[in-house]
Amino acid sequence: MTKKIVVTGLGATSPLGGTATDTWNALLAGESGASTLDYEWVERTQLPITFAAQARVRPGDVLARQETKRLDPSSQFALIAGREAWADAGEPEVEPERLAVDWATGIGGVWTLLDAWDTLRERGPRRVLPMTVPMLMPNGPGAAIGMDLHARAGITTVVSACASSTESLVNAYNRLQAGLADIVIAGGSEAAIHPLPIASFAAMQALSKRNDDPATASRPYDITRDGFVLGEGAAALVVETEEHALARGAHIYAELLGGSITSDAYHITAPDPEGSAAARAMIESIRNAGADLSDVMHINAHATSTPVGDIAEYNALRRVFGDLLDGIPVSATKASTGHLLGGAGAIEALFTVKALAERILPPTINLTEQDPAIPLDVVTSPRALGSGDLLAISNSFGFGGHNAVVAFRSV
């Protein structure tokens, strides 16, 4: 018997705000989280890209000093978002053996790893901290949440590049359907605004070069788009069976209808231009939701603002929806947040849930001249949704050919 799975808690720390509410409000206000990086290492390493979308509230302003010392920034962001989502869900009383974590990251503890390498080279092995390995492990963020909340039904880490945290939501749904937990905290985090990832992404011509105007650099679908803006932060969703949520009187934001995971098996970085596997992920997510293509009323697109990626996703969307696509409003929220890599899917799922709960679609900023090769109905200012039963999907695609799509329904 298929169970109803619902979202009962939301948490975030992002380039737009230190909480889910602040992030959402800034998104609706059309703000940008991108700014020039004010660090000595930008000039010292002669980085060609001098801006990014940093978390608006620094973890040290929220967490205890001991927590910041013993956790990589990716885990710090995760702990902040996870705690907020748990509090938002009402801090439910649940047996530890029935509470699980499905978390994600694209890169993991890159700051810890590379700082430790510098320490080893410059000061020798005796100065390398004993907590280095636990701090750099990709499963560190999920473990931090799991230990904080005593989750003993399992802590799973997904590492599938930019599709990671959408996969974590699909996995959470499947875990709940299988009866392996009553509540799952799902989401993702990333903290990769570091010289090495910036230099590497710049070398592959993936980042926008708009050093003179960071706030307008991320411009999905615009004819002048020239790459993505690197972002950081985390987002968490508390999901549980409807039966469990109702029994404890929880507030329900939306229904999680599950999703789908596919792979291109095409190229390590480039998306399949035909978009067949990406299209299949969307079709399967809608089919798994027991819905028809005509039921989809909104799409939160992956839309990174790269010349190739935006076209590839559009081709996949057109392949799925055909002429129906012309009547489906699309939001590309990376224009505001930048690209949170492994955390992107989670924060965009949060935006999709908020859109359904508040019945308002978030805008895509910086779209001044839409690419005629991408004739989508792009939401460029907050747009009200009608009443009734609403279904939306959120797309994520990652290096390695990972495709993940998750579907939500209003309640």
Describe the structure.
With 411 residues, this protein is an alpha/beta fold. Helix content is 34%, strand content 19%. It has helices at residues 20-28, 40-44, 65-70, 73-88, 110-123, 132-136, 140-149, 164-177, 195-203, 242-247, 276-288, 307-321, 334-337, 344-358, and strands at 5-13, 35-36, 51-52, 99-104, 155-158, 183-190, 233-241, 254-263, 296-300, 329-331, 360-361, 377-378, 383-384, 391-398, 402-409. The protein has an eleven-stranded mixed beta sheet, with helices on both faces. Helix 4 (73-88) runs parallel beside helix 7, helix 8 crosses helix 14 and helix 11 (276-288) packs across helix 12. The chain starts with a strand and ends with a strand. The mean pLDDT is 97.
Helix share bin: 25-40%
Order of SSEs, N→C?
A: EHEHEHHEHHHEHEHEHEHEHEHHEEEEE
Strand arrangement, largest sheet?
Answer: 5-4-6-7-1-8-15-14-9-10-12
Net shape: globular
Poorly predicted segments: none
- Roughly what fraction of the amino acids lie in strands? 15-25%
* Radius of gyration, CA atoms, in whole angstroms: 20 Å
Largest sheet: 11 strands, mixed
Distance between the termini: 20 Å
How many helices does DSSP assign? 14
Quick one: how many beta strands?
Answer: 15
User: Would you tell me the overall average pLDDT?
Assistant: 97
Class computed from helices, strands and strand pairing? alpha/beta
